[in-house]
Please model this.
Amino acid sequence: MTFGARLGERLSRLVAVRELKGAALFSASSVVLNLASLAAGFLVYRWLDPYYMGIWQTMVLVQTYCNFLTLGVANGMNRELPYVLGRGEVERGHRMAATTQAFSLWVGALSLVGFAVALWFVPDDASWRMSIAALGAIVPVSFYTQYLQGTFRANADFDRLSVIQLVDAGLRVASVALVYFFGYAGYCARAVALGMAVAVLTYAWRPIRVRSTFSWSTLKELCRTGIPIFAFSYVFGFADSIPRLVLLNEDTVETLGLYAPVLTLLGTMNAFFDSLRAYLYPKVSHYLGRRNDDARGLWRPTFAIHLLSVLSAIPVALAGVWLIPLVVEHFMPRYMGSLEALNVGLVIILFLGYRIGATLLTALKSWRYLALFVGCFLVLQWALPMLFLAWFPPLLAVSWGQAASAAVMLGVSLLVNRLAMRAGE
Model:
């Protein structure tokens, strides 16, 4: 072997080690962030009544539907930016980032005006008005933060993103003091402060620094990819919210508040899988860019990831069987009515790895199979909670409906990804 060949081999090994260290750091920071979110969430439930959490969960639904304003531009950048960087087209990638940045700022300004107008139509109730005002600050900033975080992932800059997650974890725990001293007003202020802090950190450390320049040709290019991704993502997000809509229709805002601890538990596990998706998505897109869309090498890792998602959730569920009753009884007694639903939540987390399947299909641009995936999810999220209403009260019916939906979707995810990867062979 020549000196040049040996040097190249050593450099490739060094890059591989660095990537492995980056992945390990990002995973570790994600675990810390998730645990901090879970601990902070349960502390909040110690001091806030279910009624207030029901109001906030209603606001979360509004935030989900506000994503419609993005029209898929950020989604298109998240897919195409690592892809074109994988092809070595750096200048084209920077044009995409500049256009997405300009569009995110414009949409944020539009949403800010919308929330200001909405305040005129909110009932004269301090809790609802505080909630709308808080959301009016969070949503516009979140659009820009989504763009910034996409540039971190596309640039494979997971080290600094990991540090941001660790800072975020510390702030989530420390800011619980606002809820202790100021109640629901403190909770709203805390949500705004956390959103602003993450935005400031991602802006200060952004890996791609471009001026906001709007290009219609680049916007059209992003929309061609982004609109299908956005449409499926939006329908997926709507389907994810259906159990909460069922609860609001069948019962009261307070019952939705009792469901909030279950959503915190699921959100913690989802955040772990979301961090894995955030790591995998640009990597797969970059891989496809280098391999000219050849996906034949992706099936075995896909199967392994789905299997590991179940295996990694088992010890968490077993620990939860022992811990959750103690936590509810001693730290959040106002939520004793959530205990049975939380136990069902431990079943749900075993199957949440199905969410990774949608990310892989998106990276593959396999719209037909992604449509099948999202369509199945939409039907299951509505039909199964409604079916369980025949045997359980609304809170448990929704919980068991989600458990059954997640279990079925894990199998659907494996099936459609296998079919998509075979179609590309």
Residues 3-20 have pLDDT under 50 and may be disordered. DSSP finds 14 helices and no strands in the chain. Residues 3-47 form the longest helix (45 residues).
